[in-house]
Amino acid sequence: VYPCFSWATYCCSVGNFLVMGGFQALAKPSLEFFGKCPELLQRLAESSEENIPLSDLLVTLFYLPMRHLHEYGRLLLKLGTCFEVSSVDYQKLQDGCSKFEALALHLKRRRKEAEYTYHFWKSFPGKMTDSLRKPRRRLICESSNKALTLQNSGRFSVNWFILFNDALVHAQFSTHHVFPLATLWVEPIPEENTGLHGLKLISPEETFTLLACSSMEKAKWLRSINQAVDQAMTGAGQSGAGQRVEPPISRTASYTFYKDSRLKEATYEGRWLAGKPNGRGMVKWLDGRIYTGTFKNGLEDGFGDYVMPSKTLNLNDHYQGHWKEGKMHGIGTYKYATGELYEGSFQDNMRHGHGMLRSGTLNSSSPSVFIGQWVHDKKTGYGVFDDITRGEKYMGMWQDDQRQGTGVIVTQFGLYYEGAFNNNKMQGTGVLLSEDNTTYEGEFSEDWTLNGKGVLTMPNGDYFEGSFTGEWGSGLKVTGSFFKPNLYDSDGDKGRALGRLAVPPEEKWRVVFEECWMRLGCEAPGQGENQRAWENIAVALTTSRRQHRDSPEMNLSRTQNRMLESLEFIPQQHVGPVTMEKYDSIRRYLIKACDMPLHPLGRLMETLVAVYRMTYVGVGANRRLLLQAVNEIMSYLARIFQLVRFLFPDLPEEGGAIPEPSSDPQDKKDSNCADTQLESPKPGRVVSSSALLLPVLLPRLYPPLFTLYALEKEKEDDVYWECVLRLNKQPDVALLAFLGTVFFVSTTFTPSDKLQVIQLTFEEITKEVMSSLEDNFLWSMDDLFPVFLYVVLRARIRNLGSEVSLIEDLMDPCVQHGEHGIMFTTLKACYYQIQHEKTT
C-alpha cells in the first residue's frame, strides 16, 4: 500500500506543477542549463520524437518513472513462471502484477486530467485565471459549445458553466461565481410536461435551472456533476470504478455564506439536507457570535448553544436552550454579560411565558430576583419580586415591567401591605400592618405614604377614623375622630380580612399551568384530545431521553432512565371505568410522573415548588401570609386535579365514588386493611384531589409552609411548651411505652399520614389498657381522653399547635366526620388543655 501511495503522491505533485504552468516557466532556465544541446534532455526523457517543445520534453521527463510501472508488472509475470500455478508464491506475484497494471492505468488517467486542465487554462480568459487556477483543481467538463445554458437568461447574456473536481463555476462576461461541490445538489427535471432537458441545481443560497441541448447532454452533465460531488465528499479520485448513481442528499460539509442577510460572511459546518443546514452543526460569525446545536430547514431549531459578544462589555451573552425557526423559543437559560441570569420560557427571541430573572449578586449594588410571567420581554401578569437591597418582597400583578393591579408587600422589618398598585407605586385602597399589629386601612398615594380617608387601628383596639397624610414611620397628620371600642367588642373580623385585597389564589401562576396544558397539546385548559396529550407526553419523554443520551454532561442515573422508559409507554388505565386497582395504578403513575422533571407533570411540579419557595422563604416567611400560602396549595391541588382528570377522563370528579370491589363485608374489611397507606380511611369510595395529590405535593412544600405555621402559632406554642416542661417534672413512667408512637406525628408531612400516626397511638393505648382489664370493658372517650392527654404530654411534641393547624387546614373533607376526625378533635383538645393546665 505504501509504495502505491508514494507513486500517487509523486504523480499528483507533477500534475499540480503541470496545471499551474510550471514546466512552461521552467523551459527557459532548462535551456540555459543544458546549453544548446537539447539532445541530452531528449535522451534522459527517452523520447524519440523530433522538434518537440522543451516544456513538453520536461513533462515527459518527469512522467518517465510512471512508464516503468509496466516493466515492473512484466518482470513479476516472468518471475511467476518459476513457480507452480497452484502455489501461493505464484498467486502473490500475479496479484502484484495486477496492482502495478491498475496503478499504471490510474496514474495515466491522472496525467490526462492534468494535461486536459493545463490546455484549458491556456485558452481560458486571463482575468479569471489567477483566482480560479489552483494546483489540485482539475477540469471535468465545460459548456463553451453552448451545450448547457441558463434558463430564463437574457437574450444577449453569456453564461459559461465549468465543472471542476471541487466546484462548479458560473462565468458571465468578466464576473464569475464558484459553487463548492460539497454543498451542491442536482436534480433532473422531468421532460414529460415541458419538453425541456433541464437540470435543477441547488446551493445554500441559490437555486437555478440549466437547460441541455439534448437528453444525452443532460445525462452526461447529470452523471458528471453527481460523480464529482460524490468524489469531492469522499476524497476519491476522478473516474473511479464503482461510483454511486448519486451522492447522498444528506451530508456533512462546511460553507461560508456570501449574500444571506442573516448569515452573511458566517461559516457553517455540520449536516445538510438538500441545500439547507439540517441536523447538528455550528455557525461562526465574523463578529464573534457562535451557535452550536441543531438546525431544521436552514434555521436554528431544537436545542442549541448561542454565544454573543457584548458590544460594551468585554464579556459574552450566553444562551442555552430551545430554538424554533431561527429564534429562541421554548425553555432556556440566558446569561447576560451584565451578570443577569434568566431561566424560563422564550418566544421570538424574547422572554415570554414563565421565567426567573436574577439581577446582580449579594455583593452588588442592587441584587434582586423576579419570578413570574413575561410578555414580549416585559414583566406582565402575576409575579414575585424579591428586592434584596431594600429587604422587600412584592407578590402581585405586573404590567410592562411595573407593579400594576393588586398585590402584597412584606418587609424584613415586619411591615405588611396588601392592596392596589398603579404606575409601580402603592396607589389606591390598601391595608398596612406593622409588626405590633397597628393597622391602617384606607387610601395611599405613594409607597408607604398615606393620603386620604382611612382607619388607623391600635394594637389595643382603639382607632382613628378620618383623613391621613404622611409617610408611615415618619409622622402622620390626622384629621378625624378617635374611638375607644367597648371592652366586649370582638376584633376577630379584622384579622380574617387579610388577603381580600391580594391576588386570588386561582389567578396566581396561571401561565405555569397554561404552559403545561400547551405541552399536552391543548390551546386552553381542558380543551384538547386525550389521545394527542398522551402522544405528546411520549414524544417529549423520548426526545428528552435522546438529548440526555447525546449530552454526557446531562446523563441520567440508571434508575431515572428506567423510570423514563416506563413513562414513555401510554398506560392502559387512562381509559375505561376506574376500579380500586386502576385507581391505585393511577396513583403510582402520578408519583413517578411528578418525580420526573422531563414529564410535563414533573416539570409542573418542579416549577410550582420553585415559585412557592421563592414566595414564602426569606422575607416571605411572614406569619400574615399563612392563609394565602394554604389557599395557594389548595389552588394547586384543584388545578393539578383538572389535569389528571383530563389524562384519566373516567376518574370520578372531586368527591365522587369508586365502586367497591366486592359486596362481602369481610372483603370490605380486608380491602380497608390493605389500603391503609392510601390517603383516606376508605380510599376505594371517595376520590379527592387532596387524597390523590397531597402526598406528592406537600412533602416538597412542607418546610416553608410549616415555618409559617410556627410563626403564626409562636406565642401559643411557647405557652404550650412551658406547660409541657413544667408538667413533665412530675415523674411517672407507667405509660412511657406509648410515647414513641405519637412522637412521629412531627416527622410526617401530609395530614392523612399524621392522622394515621394518631390512630396508631390510640390503638396502642387501647391494646395496653385492655390487657389489664376485662375483655367486655367498654372504652369511652371520657376514659380515653385523660390517658391520651398524658401520652401527648409525655411525648413532648415541639410546635404541636403548628401541627394541629396544618392538619386542620389541609385535612381531606371526607374524613372530618369519621374516626380520624374524632381522633384529631381529641388531639386538638389535648393541646388546648395543656396550655390551661394548672399545677400546684
From TrEMBL:
InterPro entries in the cross-refs: Alsin, Alsin-like_PH, HA_Alsin, MORN, PH-like_dom_sf, VPS9, VPS9_dom_sf
GO molecular function: guanyl-nucleotide exchange factor activity; small GTPase binding
UniProt keyword annotations, A-Z: Repeat
An example Gene Ontology CC term for this record: centrosome
Highest taxon, organism lineage: Eukaryota
Repeat keyword on record: yes
Ranges of residues in domain VPS9: 688-840
A Pfam family recorded for this sequence: HA_Alsin
Residue segments, region Disordered: 657-684
Keyword Transmembrane: no
UniProt record, GO biological process: endosomal transport
Protein name as annotated: VPS9 domain-containing protein
Organism listed in the record: Oncorhynchus tshawytscha
Organism lineage: Eukaryota, Metazoa, Chordata, Craniata, Vertebrata
